């Protein structure tokens, strides 16, 4: 029904409830009428049989003339074998039909005269002189009046019940939807005033409570996303301010050195380095934002993970060779048949960042050890360096955005980083339901341990 589409839920439920109630009442009324017909038919047969019974008994006893007259309201006729009417209280119209009535088979028959409809029973009885016929009739006018009265009562009661059903549906739906009104009012206040509040959840575990919990989870997710975006913008603004100022100064110096080719070349080279840092910072920010806002986590087979790990080791060896650091591939014990909750691209970025950090922390001539395996129901990646280690106070904040140790800040070989590498690692691992830890080694250096749950 198109006209219902623009109505409120309460109105639609009420209308459908009234329609359902009307259908139920119609079906119930039809059933009642069928039952009433059966009862009336049975009672009519019983009444007519009781009217016939005394005369049947008298005929069977041999009576021929001494018949009791019919009682008040009884319509009875007795016809002897010769066709002579011995007793009769039939109306003139039925008397005319008497020859036809006596010829009817046993049972209740409906006979219509010029003005009246009768239920008629005609019984053939063996008596003195042959076959007698006893006829009994009942005027249906009284029955029609009773049926009409009952029909009127049925209609009135049905309308009252349907109206009561509709009213109850309207009131009940209003009470049931009252929490929706409260949620709507709270949502309006939240949209206008903000804050950390959530939608009210009722004490009863029903569909509305589940809806409120789902919406609260959505609100919390949106707030967390907005908080991350604001934090990222604030952090990026803070981190970009310094290299942009440095780049501006370098360009100004380049202008001043326009007459000195050597100085101009030096300023241009330094400006290019600053631009490289800005580019790396922007790329890392985009990668971190992409990871945190991505959809469902991809599931990758152990075989693909191993292939990507070996490719990452090749890149690590090439990177480490430029800094006189050795990358030791400790082996792979990961089962190729397992599946881990991480995409190949994220796993590649994860290994590259951890290995690059380990190389940056390692002095020349030292070794970085990398391994990939399985421990229980988790896949484990370990990256161990032999560098200067990390201060105990830095480890709790090492995975925050734009955090760098003092040793990393002081590097001049380009491996100091932007402070986003470990933040990207943390985001990738947490998104896959895993964990990442940094453990200082007793003999110096740090071991990074990444664990990801095996997907069944």
UniProtKB/TrEMBL annotation:
It is found in: Cell membrane. Its main location: membrane. It catalyses: ATP + protein L-histidine = ADP + protein N-phospho-L-histidine. GO terms for molecular function: phosphorelay sensor kinase activity. Keywords: Kinase, Membrane, Phosphoprotein, Transferase, Transmembrane, Transmembrane helix, Two-component regulatory system. CDD domains: HATPase, HisKA. It comes from the Bacteria. GO terms for cellular component: plasma membrane. PROSITE patterns: HAMP, HIS_KIN. SMART domains: HAMP, HATPase_c, HisKA. It is an enzyme of class 2 (transferase). Residues 235-456 form the Histidine kinase domain. Its EC number is 2.7.13.3. The chain crosses the membrane at residues 12-36, 155-177. Residues 174-227 form the HAMP domain. Signal peptide: none annotated. This is histidine kinase. It comes from Galbitalea soli.
